[in-house]
Amino acid sequence: xxxVLVTGAAGFIGFHLSKILLKHGYNVVGIDNINDYxxxxxxxxxxxxxxxxxVDAERFNEVAKSSNSNFKFLRLNLEDRENxxxxxxxxxxxxxxxxxxxxGVRYSIENPEAYIDSNVVGFxxxxxxxxxxKIEHLVYASSSSVYGQNxxxxxxxxxxxxxxxxxxxxxxxxxxxxxxxxxxxxDFKTTGLRFFTVYGPWGRPDMAMYLFTDAILNDRPIKxxxxxxxxxxxxxxxxxxxxxxxxxxxxxSEDSKKYSLYNIGNSKPVKLMDFIxxxxxxxxxxxxxxxxxxxxxxVSRTWANVDLLKKDYNxxxxxxxxxxxxxxxxxxxxxxxxx
Length: 339
Prior knowledge:
- This protein is of the alpha/beta class.
- The chain has 12 helices and 14 strands.
- The chain has helices at residues 12-23, 40-49, 54-57, 83-90, 107-110, 112-132, 167-186, 208-217, 237-250, 272-283, 307-313, 321-335; strands at residues 3-7, 27-32, 63-65, 71-75, 95-98, 137-143, 189-195, 198-199, 222-224, 231-232, 235-236, 259-264, 270-271, 289-291.
- The relative contact order is 0.13.
């Protein structure tokens, strides 16, 4: 079975992708720098579900072996130009899936340097490693944020995205351009995925689903931006990683393009207030709402056209918002020992 490198393996999507790859018998090496952008205990908690002991995972540049013989973990920065190439030399990867990034639109306004270091310098280092080690396929995370204030709905990968309104979005657009260049110059396949508002168990604490649930269950007001006049293409994590897995599993077929770019979302935008209502329904608690103006760098609505991904990889998101919210709240209450 092929060997896959998953960067950001202690992150939300990386953790779930590693699980599904292992379930299907792949050999997986995960890396993550476990930075403190949010609670590191959540990251170590995810790794523990992959069979990695926290003490082993805390050490930089040392391989931590899992109780699952097909999984290994290494704490490592993508910016590390000395040890990242060594990782590729020591492991004959067939496929690389880059999910490591400094995430968050709003935080990019406060700490722009972190985004350039991780999302641009780190991505360049990864491209160089793929180039020099004959990686057959690089799958990487882009973001729906690249669409900015695009008014054409639904968003299509053919749309012009030359006007990002956050540095985070600008770094993701730069990743797409860099990947195109490397595919063209060095003849290896790259596939970019523009993720749309992913949510679900083990999600990040800065995401709306987590913030709303935490506030509602702990009797705090929730912050509702743009006075609730927002729509998001909320996409459940299982649907996301099933799509990513299909792209990895199909492989570098002869008829596949060297450079590909896809939207990956639910393609069913939901009004923010309806999403909040579903959380209220599932928790049995009415939210205290603090209505606020739009935040800098944010957009009013997102909606993914996923026809191309359906055509090429039979991508079929199935999870309704009601089911997804229910699963998240069950996990959240269990994780935090709340009734």
